[in-house]
Amino acid sequence: MNVVFLTATLVLAVTFPGSAQETAASTRTPLSQLLAEAAANNPQISSAEHTAKAARQMAPQITALPDPKLTYQQLSVGSPKPFAGYTNSDFAYIGIGASQELPYPGKLRLRGQVAERDADTKQAEIDITKVGIADGVKSDYLQLAYLQQTLGILQQNKVVLDLLIQDATAHYQVGQGMQQDVLEAQLNRTRILREITMHHQQMGQIQAHLKGLLNRDQQSPDVITDDLTETPLKTTAGELSSLVKKSNPQIRADANAIQKQDAQVASAKREGKPDFEVGYMYQNTDRRYRDYYEFNLNVRFPRKKRVDAEIAEAQEQLTVSQKTFDAHLAQQLSRVQQAYVQVTKDEELLREYREGLVPQSDAVYRAVLSAFASNKDQFTHVLLYFTDLLTLKLEYAQTLLDHETALAHLESLTGATLR
């Protein structure tokens, strides 16, 4: 019984804090390596980058003059046959000419500015995609670290419970315990086995999702994470809010969208100016007649009703962009504050678990186990405090996961490195 008691207390003691798996450090993959891999290989990021490159090609198209026209004419006199009257009429001729449309000065430049601002917005959207993918990788990585760590706790506590079941069985066989104690301990062991099975299921699902983000083959080796440890937050709420306004990718994209709509309003107003088309033609007649030289100037006057509607639309879209910017900024600041509150409160909870709840529960468990070993307490109390201690350690691990996940979200919202 003393051997069982010492083994049970020793095994349970090393489960907090502990590693999820007894794995060589060389096989672990740091989070930074996975983030770099996702940035290089994720197809969503690649798609966003090519979309931005395509958008950059719009400005050269829009700012170029309309395509020039080359005209060939042949005028017959007296008959529809080609060249009829060419040698006996000074009205018959062969004409060659060219024409060019000329938009009002400034129109092409303003259209180009709209295209450039749109390309800037697409470029900013790359960062939104990158941050979204990175946030997903971090979330999966932290969840895996949590599951691997708590899996270790469950497996070690299963070993302890097996020893306790042996001890309770020995008591029962010599008439010092009840069969109910053994059955209840076996039920708790089955519950731990169920939790271990569920952990393996969740780990498999997260591994599949993470490999998708990394664009890895699903049959490739699973990712082994580093241990989940607490990272203190050293940045104030005010500093985090300032970083949102400066570095948040969604806010930058919204700012670019406002600049685009500003350019669109200016361009729409310029569209009310007339456009021109100039042309020149040389008309050749028979040598006995004089040739003709023709110059054309056409002016296109945009309809005011259509131009006014375009200006009104552009102004409304500008208002939409400004309101979207304000809404997203308020939303992002709110998310930062929520994450900040969670991180700071989780740090307090972690300290309470680490310095109070877990050590105190462990001390009570050891005392009850010692009393049981000396036949001074009941096995049901041992099982109760064993379960309480296991629950507290799992709660500590969950709080640690929540803390690190909130920090990861703060990094995505602010562009800062906090972990």
TrEMBL record:
Family matches, as Pfam families: OEP
Signal peptide coordinates: 1-20
Key words of the record: Signal
Coiled coil: none
Molecular function as annotated in GO: efflux transmembrane transporter activity
UniProt-listed SUPFAM superfamilies: Outer membrane efflux proteins (OEP)
Family annotation (PANTHER family): BLR4935 PROTEIN, OUTER MEMBRANE CATION EFFLUX PROTEIN
Family: Belongs to the outer membrane factor (OMF) (TC 1.B.17) family.
Protein name (database record): TolC family protein
Lineage, uppermost ranks: Bacteria, Pseudomonadati, Acidobacteriota, Terriglobia, Terriglobales
